[in-house]
Amino acid sequence: MKCGRTFFSATVSLTFLELVEGVVMLNAFLVIGLVMAAISIPLVFYWKAESIATLLRKYGI
Length: 61
Description:
By secondary structure, this protein is mainly alpha-helical. It has one domain (6-59). Helix content is 72%, strand content 10%. It has 1 helix and 2 strands; from the N terminus they run ββα. It has a two-stranded antiparallel ribbon. A hairpin with a 4-residue loop joins strand 1 (6-8) and strand 2 (13-15). The longest helix is centred in the middle third of the chain and has 44 residues, at 16-59. 0% of the residues are buried.
């Protein structure tokens, strides 16, 4: 039997600590996603700029 305050839903009962752990895990995934976006978006723009520059040099524009 679990001690502490419980939150009930239709099929699952969560203790307060389990609920906090879930929120922390979601926040961790959110931070990881934001870091990945912060790194990948500038890289995509850099890659696209390089390909445009290559085309401009190729056609002498």
